[in-house]
Amino acid sequence: MDGTPATTGEDTWEVAGRRFRSRLIVGTGRYKSLEETAEAIEASGAEIVTVAVRRVNLSDPNAPMLQDFVSPKRYTYLPNTAGCHTASDAVRTLRLAREAGGWNLVKLEVLGPPPYLYPDMAGTLEAAEALIKDGFEVMVYCADDPVAAKKLEDMGCVAIMPLGAPIGSGLGLTNPFMIRSIKQQAKVPVLVDAGIGTASDAAKAMELGCDAVLLNSAIAHAKDPVRMARAMKSAVEAGRDAFLAGRMPWNYSADASSPMTGLIR
Amino acid sequence: MQCPLPFATFRHDMTDRITITVNGEARNVASGDTVARLLAAIGLDTRKVAVERNEEIVPRSIYAEVALAAGDRLEIVHFIGGG
């Protein structure tokens, strides 16, 4: 990204009044090193990165920090509430994030228990309400449930982010019909968040009409994360173009591409 | 060597040192110390962390004014990699 403002007619998307070119948001977790994190994120072309909020290590206060490798001046930090299983923990975490980073665009996730870490929608709705009241702009991780998604949108969430499959599972889009339904009824951006395993999954999410894709493990746990980051960048762009181009109809019989006239006899 | 007189220990703690909890660990600080002094003693760059005291955010702008009290529970956090 060269940091220049997007021009009119360029295919961009907007969340909470901020405009972005890249439709890929990447996580910064699970990499082997901070160097690898920085390199993979660069290759992904992402402009927004998710980050977690955790206690500092008091015994090693000079340990290198994420900010030293992934600059918040260059990338929009999207603090998350990973690991929060109650609304109050999520709200506390994001208040700390706002103080640490000075901005109010956040990713809310209130999770149910392992092994699925499926979104806890009761907790999510409760936390979203409190955060919006407190001035946050909430991008919300949620179940692939059009009714809950609509409630979150009506409440004032700035982006709806249903899961493709459980976090870190790499299972892809397990319910594409629901993702499409959520997108069709929404007036705010819809992102597939969680479950993406490989490039074709990201392309598929974009082909369904999603505004962007959020992923982490698919890159970080690939054998070659930097190459997979590049693949994801291409996949999101390809999927977006395919969506805008409009795919051909499904036919259940053959329809030859070559003319049937002028054949030799 | 521990002072054999419990009263003496008690009096010493009350006058000079207080115990607070920082990120789940007990820590002795001088009575009258501020959040700013605590962060400096730990060696943290205040621009990269956020502080919560007894579940209330301490704004960065007032670190030097907030005096620590015995029993305070502080959380000092920063951003790390996450999805």
UniProtKB/TrEMBL annotation, chain A:
Keyword Signal listed: no
Enzyme Commission code(s) on record: 2.8.1.10
Residues covered by the Thiazole synthase ThiG domain: 15-259
Molecular function via GO: thiazole synthase activity
A GO term from the CC aspect: cytoplasm
Recorded metabolic or biological pathway in which this protein acts: Cofactor biosynthesis; thiamine diphosphate biosynthesis
Keyword DNA repair attached: no
Annotated catalysed reactions: [ThiS sulfur-carrier protein]-C-terminal-Gly-aminoethanethioate + 2-iminoacetate + 1-deoxy-D-xylulose 5-phosphate = [ThiS sulfur-carrier protein]-C-terminal Gly-Gly + 2-[(2R,5Z)-2-carboxy-4-methylthiazol-5(2H)-ylidene]ethyl phosphate + 2 H2O + H(+)
Assembly notes: Homotetramer. Forms heterodimers with either ThiH or ThiS.
Protein name according to UniProt: Thiazole synthase
Taxonomic lineage from the root: Bacteria, Pseudomonadati, Pseudomonadota, Alphaproteobacteria, Acetobacterales
